[in-house]
Amino acid sequence: MALNIAQKLRLTSVVLGTATRKDLAAAFRAVNPRTAFDVGRADKWLQGRAQPREHSVYEDWAKVLRLEQPGAWIAESDLPTFAATIAARHGIDTAELERRASAQSEASPGHDDKGVGLALAGTYACYSRAWSPYYRGQLIRGRLSIEAGPGVHGFTATYRETLPTGQLQLGGPVTPAKRSLYLHLKEVGGEAQFFLCLFPQTQPVSVLGGYMCGTAIIGPEPQPSLTRILLVRLRDAPAAEQWGGYLPPGTSIAADLASLGIVIEHPDAVDRQLGRFLSAESDGGVNQIPPAEFRAIIEVFDRRWLQHAG
Question: DSSP states of 123-156 as a string?
Fold first, then answer.
């Protein structure tokens, strides 16, 4: 099954330095004058409304990128692996490749929400207040992965928590919008549902934040619950595979992030900032996050992300 075709074509365009769909089609004709890649169908492929059905297109694609892998690998590989492979093959840093592809998508006329995919996709370390009455006052850590997939906007998310009762896993669609980023997650093999309403993502998407609502998983009775949540994007996804669960009282969030490779300057100040964000109460019965409060957090993590872009 072909995966992430629109995003892979954008990455290919960046690597080749092609400015238009005609230029991209010309690159395919250069390796095969009878290629099935044409401008008309490329428009649909880049919009995510269709994907190449002819096997020959993928074989031509492999030649265009001068890859050792066959065309089938281009169709079936996941997006991070594809990006890393072609970046290495053409001597480009992966983060820089993704940045250029995102910028190109945003600058193109009529670009849709899929254009943010290369920046939004990834793995995030999540911090929120524990809903269980048995862990009142503590933070719980979760792992969220966003990747391109089926659906109206082409993004899906998987959220995991390590609980004393076992692994909790939920998944569902991601919907980017002008005024928010929405995630509706349903438990795999269970009844739990979480809904996340987050601030819209901004380049380079080093951190996301907003609210998560649902029902407490561990407790003597059902309790509809709401908490602020912070999602810090990781460069090294495997680092979070065995990470998670309730954060022991008094543990520094900055130190916990450092265990995942996110080392932050002035950790004490950042701990106070993040602690205030996650612990804020409602104002007059209404739960709202002042944009300036979250913007200050974005600046901390954006600066760190950009400093380590290479």
Answer: EEEEEEE--SGGGTT-EEEEEEEEEE-SSSSSEE
Please, are residues 211 and 228 in contact by the beta-carbon 8 Å criterion? Answer: yes
Q: What is the pLDDT of residues 220-267, one digit of tens each?
A: 998 999 999 999 999 876 666 778 899 999 999 999 999 999 999 999
- Rounded to the nearest 10°, the torsion over CA 248, 249, 251, 256 is 40
Residue 80's nearest CA partner among 52, 132, 121, 25 is: 121
Cα 194 to Cα 60: distance, rounded to the nearest angstrom: 43
Q: Count CB atoms within 10 A of the CB of residue 59.
A: 18
CATH of segment(s) 121-307: 2.40.128
Enter the tokens of residue 1: 């099954």
Residue in this structure with the two tokens 């600046």, named with its chain if needed:
299
pTM of the model: 0.65
| Residue 105 pLDDT greater than 80, yes or no | no
Portions of the chain given CATH number 2.40.128: 121-307
33: left (phi over 0), alpha (psi -120 to 50) or beta: alpha
φ/ψ (deg, to 5) at 260? -100, 5
Other CB atoms closer than 10 Å to residue 285's CB: what's the count?
Answer: 5
Question: pLDDT tens digits, residue range 15-69?
Answer: 888 877 888 999 999 999 999 998 888 878 887 778 898 999 999 999 999 999 9
Rg (CA), the chain: 21
